[in-house]
Amino acid sequence: MRTRPPRTHAQRTTVMLAAVTALAAATVPAGAAESSPVGFGAGTTGGGGATAVTVSSLAAFKAAVTGSTAKVVRVNGLISLSGQVDVGSNTTVLGVGSSSGFTGGGLRLKKVTNVVVRNLNISKPLAPADGIEVQASTKVWIDHNSFSADRSHDKDYYDGLLDINHAADNVTVSWNSFREHFKGSLVGHSDNNAGEDTGHLRVTYHHNRFSNVYSRIPSLRFGTGHFYNNYVDGAETACHSRMGAQMLVENNVFRNTGVAVTTNRSSDVDGYANLRGNDLGGAATEISRTGSFTSPPYSYTPESASTVVASVTSGAGAGKL
């Protein structure tokens, strides 16, 4: 039997580096370059392969996103808004580069289906406009956007960064950055809307970064929420399940946060929550009712909480596609 001569130091180093590289490649999630949504919004295609139209003015944008024919609208530059712009069905809205988007107002997806919004900067949505409002709509993917405001104004000066309401359904919120705001993401607008919302409001949040957002990360009424592999830093109250909502909170990281998960604040009826694999970082939990939602009805591969900070910090927000 032939024996192999001992490896040199250089050869051993090369082999070790190759092994480390392979391990890193195996543990880094592919989500930062996802071509389709994972989660409740799976199957959303937006404008698909329609020929893209590039716009750089508010008038051109409004004209480009109306109607339900398949369309891809590229936003080039930062456009000032007052109020909200309605986006039609079967639409992809895509920011150009790392600094395109909207300021002062936001986008509204009302009674539409199959909409993708990616790579936009959406800032300072003056009340009563949300940064993005998903209302009575289905099949929505909100991905790789940067939402922001400031904390120097009263909490009601700006509206929500991303609100989902009126029985909206099958939504995925992935790889976004939310920062410097009081009211992050509200799902289900009212305690009195059970008749419309019950059985709907199914939303997945994964690989999002919340930095210095006071609360609503998210706040969920009546619906079903899967919150996994997110990085929350600087919240007072993060995940809030209320009015019978079911929430699975899985493999997230919380830092400088007062309460990571609560089921018993602000509403007459508590929510339900299941927690697993989280790094709470010293944050409290207030779980009055443990939920039954433990197995999402879709395929996904959560990464360990130990790698979430690195992957979300490097991958979330506009300009990261």
How would you describe the overall organization of this protein?
With 321 residues, this protein is mainly β. The chain is built from four helices and 25 strands. The strands form three sheets. A ten-stranded parallel beta sheet has the order 1-2-4-6-9-12-15-18-21-24, covered by helices on one side. Mean pLDDT is 92; it is low at 9-31.
List keywords for this structure.
mainly beta, 13% helix, ten-stranded parallel beta sheet, 321 residues, Pectate Lyase C-like
Beta-strand percent range: 35-45%
Q: Any idea what the shape is?
A: globular
What is the helix content?
10-25%
- End-to-end separation in angstroms reads 52 Å
Find the CATH superfamily: Single-stranded right-handed beta-helix, Pectin lyase-like
Number of E strands:
25
What is the radius of gyration? 21 Å
Q: What is the oligomeric state here? A: single chain
Q: Averaged pLDDT, please?
A: 92
* CATH hierarchy: architecture: 3 Solenoid
Give the ordered list of helices and strands. Answer: HEHEEEEEEEEEEEEEHEEEEEEEEEEEH
Strand order of the largest sheet: 1-2-4-6-9-12-15-18-21-24
Helix count?
4
Describe the SSE topology.
Blueprint: H1 9-27, E1 52-55, H2 58-65, E2 71-75, E3 78-86, E4 91-95, E5 101-110, E6 113-118, E7 121-123, E8 132-135, E9 138-143, E10 146-148, E11 162-165, E12 169-174, E13 177-183, E14 186-187, H3 194-197, E15 202-206, E16 209-215, E17 219-221, E18 224-228, E19 231-233, E20 237-242, E21 246-250, E22 253-255, E23 259-262, E24 272-276, E25 284-286, H4 305-315
Parallel strand pairs: 1-2, 2-4, 3-5, 4-6, 5-7, 5-8, 6-9, 7-10, 8-11, 9-12, 10-13, 12-15, 13-16, 14-17, 15-18, 16-19, 17-20, 18-21, 19-22, 20-23, 21-24, 23-25
